[in-house]
Amino acid sequence: MKKAMKFAIGSLAVSFVVLGIKYVAFAVTGSLALYSDFLESIINVGTSVAAIVAIRVSALPADANHPFGHHKAEYLSAVLIGVMIIVASLLIFHEAWAGFLDPKPIEAPALGLTISMGATAINAFWGLLIIRFGRRARSASLVADGKHMLADVVTSLGVLVGVVLVVVTGMVVLDAAIAALVGLHILWSGYGVLRESASALLDEAVPAKTLDTIRGIISTQAPEAIEAHDLRTRHAGAATFIDFHLVVDSEMKIATAHAVCDRLESALEAAVDGAVVSIHVEPANKAKHKGIVVL
Fold this sequence. Notes:
single chain; alpha+beta; 2 domains; 4 strands; 69% helix; elongated; transmembrane helix; membrane; Cation_efflux_CTD; transport; Cation_efflux_TMD_sf
């Protein structure tokens, strides 16, 4: 978690640097398209701050009011990021409309584009880096932050091409049109972040591959049992919650059943990162003859 926090703080620093560079590009040119690119970078700063807060809160231990921990703080942060992205797109639409009504020529385009390309290169490198780490650390807020940075890269590349077209064709109104397209792209990006976060907040099950791993471990690591049924999974940040009913012989001693559960928990925790396992032991007459047959 300390490493995740370092990445989040690094994202904030990178976002401020990129924001400053893009503002210079906009100030030099007066381009609405570059303004929209700058405005999206303001959201990058906001998303980095949200990621820092989420990582800090999600790392807090479970307490009386939050017995399952604070893992979902990451997803609440990702929802906030999605909302901020959508707000940015609406601001861009407002400026684009004003540009359609009163188009203005772009000044010093070569210098502005060169400055903007430097900011884009920084965003691309850092965005790919934190997405890779965020997925490995199962940090929803870091992944959301990285995805927005990459969305910003795509936006910036489109803006660069568009500004070149404005200069080459002399069609000043294209500047506002490009800004509007940037707004649509950002709006779609925000929707994607909200959709992914919503699935986690609604306790979505683990991926099929992980579920197969869990079923395989239960099937092979408890030969003293009869079956396992009512397997349920959900993920929340870095934690994966696994619970199921384990049917054993009615004459089995409590100590033996407990040892079987300990073995299963250890195997699941070793195979599934952040596994939190709950097992309900039942006597043979509770067998449903379906679910997972123990080998």
